[in-house]
Amino acid sequence: MRDQIDLLATVTVLGVLEQAYFAMQVIYARRKYKVSPPETTGHPEFERTFRAQANCSEYFPIFISLLWVAGIFFHQGVTAVCGLLYLYTRLRYFQGYAGAARGRLGPLYASAWLLWVLLGLALAGLLAHFLRPRSSTWMAALVWPLQLHGAW
Fold it and tell me: Is 92 a catalytic residue?
């Protein structure tokens, strides 16, 4: 079983390490600009770094969920490549936002597009899984109305 999820697990760990890197950058910015917790305002560079980290953290659960569903139900390799590209675009987003607010837009659009791709892969995999003929009772009950109308 491990060889069926090894790429997904690797991308997950890389994502966690990336989140840790973002959090460390906020800590360094707090020290550099003397912004003590729980304050979230101060020097503009600190605020951009803080906001970039918060935004990346907000999207991380969505990314991880889609990564695993798409990887298990669609294809692990394709999903892992999309996951690595997503992590790269989030790193570029973080770096761009921390430097200047306008620097975030290109990577933001790219990472959003990759989330949509992962969602599409997850949905395609789930549809294929549930529409595959089986001998299970619930599937037979689901398909029965379609058989009556000659659609199945």
Answer: no
